[in-house]
Amino acid sequence: MVKKNTLLLILIGFSAQTLMAQLGFSHEIGAITGPVAFQSDYGVRSDFETNAGNTGFGVGIVHYINFAYRADCNCYTKDSFFNDHFKLRNEISYSKTALEHFGEWVSTDKNSATARRLRGMSGEANVLDLGSQLEYFPYSIRDFSAGGYIFAPFISLGAHYNNFSPKAAQDLSKLTTAEAALTEIIDPSNPTTANNAIFWDESATNEGFSSWSLVWSVGTRYKLTPLSDLMIDLRWQYYFTDFADGLDHNSPSDKFNDWNVWLNFGYIYYLD
To answer: Which of 29, 80, 174, 211 could form a disulfide with 120 if both were Cys (CB 3.0 to 4.6 A apart)?
Structure first.
């Protein structure tokens, strides 16, 4: 079902791009990469150590529809506020973040069963993104393209469809024999050892699934050449699920959905 939904969204996106191309708008393509700070059920929320520790990396390909310029006639489009201040950004990206618990509840001076369980836990968030954002440029896109200024700040808002492949594991050496005996193997067919076994209860999953997310960002472009820009943007992405990391404890401390902050560095090339 996940693969069918992803394929359907790709086909819809391709059809939309074909329609835009037929309307004559110009196109830009580029690549993005940068660090991702993943906020989930691992660690203490709003804790600096957690925010700094649970950091991964992401890469992506972006495509822009430039409404200010027509590719079919090599001329500017009709001068309107929308055409001169908005671009449509389409993206496919992938991020990977290793996760573990940080903060006061796993400090070395704590030796309770809960503290040992938390110290032994590890996870991984693997997220494939496909979606679009509408970018707003306060300054004229035409003037920026013509070299009137070298920086073009922007803000954006959009929605992404996400495919998640979480991983949850625990080192049984951090538990006593009695504690380990109470755990539930979530994949009995997977070989396990006394010191390294994948397990959890109904609050965890290693199964892949899909969901939607809300994305907004703030950034700027830098005019590198007449046909290329450098870009930097800081993106906040809110998932409509608490299972992006594979955990959902359903406790008062873990009642929020997962989200991330992604600092992107990119290169954009104008196709026509």
So the answer is: 174
3 state SS for the chain: CHHHHHHHHHHHHHHHHHHHHHCCEEEEEEEEEEEEEEECCCCCCCCHHHHHHCEEEEEEEEEEEEEEEECCCCEECCCCHHHHHEEEEEEEEEEEEEEECCCHHHCCCCCCHHHHHHHHEEEEEEEEEEEEEEEECCCCHHHHHCCCCCEEEEEEEEEEEEEECCEEEECHHHCCHHHHHCCCECCCCCCCCCCCECECCCCECCCCEEEEEEEEEEEEEEEEECCEEEEEEEEEEEECCCCCCCECCCCHHHCCCCEEEEEEEEEEEECC
**Residue-wise pLDDT tens digits, 137-153:** 999 999 998 889 999 99
More confident residue, 171 or 117: 117
C-beta atoms surrounding 6 within 10 Å: 16
Tell which residue, 189, 186, 187, has the closest CA to residue 202.
Answer: 186
**Which residues does residue 140 pair with via DSSP β-bridges, in sequence order?**
none
Q: Yes or no: is domain 2-270 CATH 2.40.160.20?
A: yes
- Please tell me the pTM assigned to this model: 0.77
CB atoms within 10 A of CB 39: 23
The tens digit of pLDDT for each residue in 188-227 reads: 344 443 333 334 444 666 778 899 999 999 999 999 999 9
Rounded to whole angstroms, how far apart are CA atoms 217 and 28? 19
**CA nearest 135: which of 156, 158, 161, 108?**
156
Amino acid at 170: Q
